[in-house]
Amino acid sequence: MDNAKVIDLNTHALSWVGKIYYDFGFLVQKAFQENGLDLSKEQWSVLKRLYVDDGQPQNDLAFITHRDKTSMTRLINTMESKDLVVRKNDENDHRINRIFLTDHGKEVIAKVQPIMYDLIPSVQESLNDQEIEVLINALKKIQAKMAELA
């Protein structure tokens, strides 16, 4: 251990990004529960992607939401059991499952959007516009560096 570097995680930006991601997920979950929504933040992530582009292939959703195929299958299964989405075979290639919002899924989106539109600004209200811009630019630089290293 004498040659090992001791890293103070409180001085590293990525540690703070992780902490904020975790804490925000907790706030989202709490807001959903307080509003009587049986929805996880992962399910919300899929719903909002489908709201923008309904009928996406399941594998594309896995890629977009940074999930492996197995966990995406489990997530879609759960969402189907909650009547949020329906899985249909692609008309041209039956190996491809396309995921569509159900009417109930669309109703849930309509309930969640105002919650998120209130929550996100309230979390950021301690920052002014310039601070938000600097933060976003710094995070974009970190993302670009990670893409370069990958």
Describe the structure.
By secondary structure, the chain is mainly α. Helix content is 65%, strand content 8%. A hairpin with a 7-residue loop joins strand 2 (85-89) and strand 3. The longest helix has 22 residues, at 13-34. The two termini are 29 Å apart.
List keywords for this structure.
mainly alpha; 150 residues
Produce the secondary structure layout.
Blueprint: H1 13-34, H2 41-52, E1 56-57, H3 58-64, H4 69-81, E2 85-89, E3 97-101, H5 103-124, H6 129-149
Antiparallel strand pairs: 1-3, 2-3
Helix pairs in contact: 1-5, 2-5, 3-4
Average pLDDT confidence is 91
Q: Categorize the overall geometry.
A: globular
Round the Cα radius of gyration to an integer and report it. Answer: 19 Å
- In total, the number of strands is 3
Strand content: 5-15%
| CA(first)-CA(last) distance | 29 Å
Q: Helix/strand/pairing class, anyone?
A: mainly alpha
Report strand order across the widest sheet. 1-3-2
- The H-and-E topology, N to C, reads as HHEHHEEHH
The portion of residues assigned to helices is 55-70%
Poorly predicted tracts of residues: none
The major β-sheet equals:
3 strands, antiparallel
Number of helical runs?
6
